[in-house]
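INTERNAL AUDIT FORM
Audit reference: QA-55
Scope: verify that the stored structure record matches its stored sequence.
Auditor: D.O.
Record contents follow.
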Amino acid sequence: MGTYERIMSVIAEPMGWLLNLLYDFINNYAIALIVFTLLVRTCLLPLYISQMKNSAKMKEFQPKIQALQKKYSNDKEMLNMKMMELYKEEKFNPMRGCLPMLIQMPIILALFVLLRNPIAFISDPQMLMAIHESFLWIPDMSQPDPWLLPVLAGIATFFSYSATMAMSGSSPEMAGAGGMMKMMKYFFPIMIVWMGRSFPAGLTLYWFVGTLYAICQHFIINKAKERR
């Protein structure tokens, strides 16, 4: 086991234990992985709520941002400086919206290590065989699905970013974090499709289900806010 895998094993080993436990109850690897995904996403829910509040706050002072864009349209350096001053004045951190992704990255990397080399983290022979089970159109969950699942994951990612941008009131002209989000709205789904075609189908399934769950969370929280 290499250095990278030894580091990731700190997370991969308990994940393997939890997957094994879920499989013992459910007796279907893909369904156990879906339940695992929902559990992880539920644990991350406070971070996603914080992210949504952060996006809503940005939408509130969007007129101030647009005023700065108009005033300093010919001076990008000054615009960026004034934007930073505005963020400080509003006590707003544009990078806070990235926190759920940063927290989730070690989980995704550990899951990749787990699914790529399950024998290093799972001792149960039945579970080791279960990782190779078929699910719907996928013949082997340990192997990549060449197109359909990665494309579904990419589409889900696109809608998730669209919902986040709608909440933050991002516009094409917006500088700073909003401009970065606009670029990522298109780049990141394409990257997910590309990576999903080479990653184990189980990992792509994790991303797809987790992103769908995040979209549902978005919808439910927005509806709850509208009723207040």
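Auditor finding: record pair retrieved intact. The chain is about 75% helix and 0% strand.
Action required: none
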